[in-house]
Amino acid sequence: MADELGLNELLTLGLTRYEARVYLALVRRDRFTPTEAAREAGIPRQRIYDVLESLADRGLVRLRPGQTAHYSAIDPVVALEHLVSAHRASLSRLEHQAHQLGQELGKVWSSGAEQTDPLDYVEVVRDPSAVVERFAGLQASARRQILTLAKLPYVTGTNPPGVDDIRRLVAAGGEARCVYERASLADPANVANAHRFMAAGERARVLDEVPMKLCVVDGAQVLMSLLDPVAGYASSTSIMIEHPALGFCLVEAFEALWSRAEDYPEA
């Protein structure tokens, strides 16, 4: 298995755990076939090609064509500069987007006093069955994207209609991504359910702690659940909001968490 030296630093720079392991394995030798790289890095062989493709796109490895394809690591000094440059570019985009959002929200804020009912687009939902109903409606309405933060405890079970909605969305060219809480891996039923969604086309990652339950659909429709800061898990309030500006902000927050998360374990 690849040396763990530098693993945490590569994760901090934005690589997934699989990507970091494969790059560290390639650094130790002049070249590897994909199968050799998977074995050396200790990752599932069926994942090695998409991991190598991602590393190549990031400028960290290169393909060495031949009768048998081999991959080599790019000089770490150059490769790490590629990662840092990508972060600089991402930060520049965020600054530009934040400026634009500030301008747009400033207009909304300035005209807010003219709104006769500024909360028309907000619905507070407290009944658990109503929350399940709203969540199902959001999944069914998705046309481009579903982004979900899955925080324990879950209010839905196996949710076959939700799996069908993910399959429909992905088949139509949309995307579905979910960040699960690591504690959920302790329950085999949760893991089996996550794998059903992944089989339908959902991309899944795991984070030690997910801050809240959240679903953002098509960048504009939002369902979030906020725990009572005193009662904790014993009490929560769900809020459904349809607002593109809020959706934009929450999509950016989701992307930040997604970049820190690691791949969901294979079945």
Automatic annotation (TrEMBL):
Secretion signal, residue range per the UniProt entry: none
Gene3D superfamilies hit by this protein: Winged helix-like DNA-binding domain superfamily/Winged helix DNA-binding domain (1.10.10.10)
Keyword Oxidoreductase applies: no
Domain of life: Bacteria
Organism of provenance: Longispora fulva
One function term, GO molecular function aspect: DNA binding
Xref: Pfam families: TrmB (PF01978)
UniProt domain Transcription regulator TrmB N-terminal: residue ranges: 12-76
Name used for this protein in its record: Putative DNA-binding transcriptional regulator
Keywords, comma-separated and alphabetical: DNA-binding
